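just leaving the lab so this will be short. what follows is a protein written twice so to speak, once as letters and once as structure tokens for the fold. can you read through it and tell me how you think this chain folds. thanks a lot i owe you, the record is right below.

___
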Amino acid sequence: MQHPHLDTRISPLRQRLIDDMNMRRFSRETQRNYLRDIGRLAAFLGRSPDTATADDQRRFQIEQQADGVPVPTMNSIVSALRFFFTHTLDRPDLARRLVQLAHRRNLPVVLSRDEVARLLNATTCLKHQAAHSVAYGAGLRVAEVSMLKVADVDSERMLLRVERGKGGRCRNAMLSEDLLALLREWWKVGRQQGVMHRDG
């Protein structure tokens, strides 16, 4: 009995694209996005994307704009297609024809000290307050906060060691006196509850 999903073979072109991305150590998420975005061009053309012409690309981008595709999404698609045409197909002439749009980025809203205090004090337990305080005070992402270990707290240099951050990179984040005091308080409570260990 055949299993259609197991028996489906990857086309040589798709495999070559995947190999090119692996060679450059692209993350899984970037690879998934590039494959999706190149697939958008293929769906628009109704044929393999390696047959695209400069006019095809122009019509593709015009249709995206007419369909209201947001500028950041359009620019992500351009990045994927430029990689595809330049590295996988060795057609930099086609890559140069793609238009990247200027995108105005708005600054995020900055909370006042009172708003930050109310947000952090709205937590129901010390563990959550510590996690939210680390995320806000040290600028860590949720995944980075969840991966922190006791050994990552450097109280001598007042730093937090962030392993496997965005893009798999390691970095240091600043640690304030107040945040260190809160983490020490959570360490004591966590040990009493039996949920905090030297490597946890």
Notes: The longest strand covers residues 159-162. The beta strands are 153-154, 159-162, 171-174. The mean pLDDT is 86. The chain has ten helices and three strands.
